[in-house]
Amino acid sequence: MNKFRERRIDNRQREYAQRVNQERRRKRRKKNYLIHYILIFILVTVIGVILSLTVFFNINKIVINGNSTLVTNDQIIGFSKVNEGQNLFRIDLEKIENRIIENTTDIDSVNVRRGLPDKLIIDLEPSQAKLAYYNNGKYYLISQGNRVINVVDSLDNYPDIIKFSSADLKDIKVGDFLTDNEAYKDINKLISHINKVGLNGIKAIEIKSHGEIKLDYENRITIELGNMVEIDYKLKTVNKVLTEYVEANSYGVIDAKTETVAYFRPMSREKQIESGKVVKVE
Prior knowledge:
Blueprint (H helix, E strand, L loop, with lengths): L1 H53 L6 E5 L7 H8 L12 H10 L4 E9 L3 E8 L2 E7 L2 E6 L4 E5 L9 E5 L15 H16 L4 E6 L5 E5 L3 E6 L4 H14 L7 E4 L7 E4 L2 H6 L8
Parallel strand pairs: 1-3, 4-7, 7-8, 10-11
Antiparallel strand pairs: 2-3, 4-5, 5-6, 8-9, 9-10, 11-12
Helix pairs in contact: 2-3, 4-5
């Protein structure tokens, strides 16, 4: 009886040992498979990267969306210094954008992107003049993207553009971006407030060295705003005066230099000029 029991125990131990060994072998095989799959994945990835940078994704076509009025698409491609046959993933998109911007003056922004499998796409945002800065007998046209895009002697071809003068905005040239120009920031801020209030009809802006602001409304009313303090409130008050208290086609001056009140004084255009009230942007 004892021998039979001992054999049963030995059988159980052998079965347990076999199960343990099988489990060990299974785990070892699983680990080996995992390492095998990882190596295959790495190999496939390396091969894919090598092929992507050598055989596949080479530029077959350069597509340009948008246009410049001063240079051709072929010139744009020349500025980019990219040629057909180059690999899409071995070119620096930001450097291409900068090259095109540096060589053009009527483009506000450039976005270069990859059009897989074989296209390079160049998106151009053409400049549109929104302001004209007067200085030394010339008008510097400034775009929606705050870039100086041209210098002209006359605004005959830009009848609806707002012109301005500023004692602090100097030494600008065609191609410059004025986004970080402190003097221009005040102009841009003022324009934003004017648009926000809905004060349509502004033809000219004058900003003197001590920050005094004057607006020309429809070439008949001079608006004196003082400085930029509470400018939003001042413009809202001016808009209210114009719409509710000033008759159509009236000439005069609106004094809104203080934040609490604005009043209208009738005055002919000739008198405005004689008294120095009129906005001087020419």
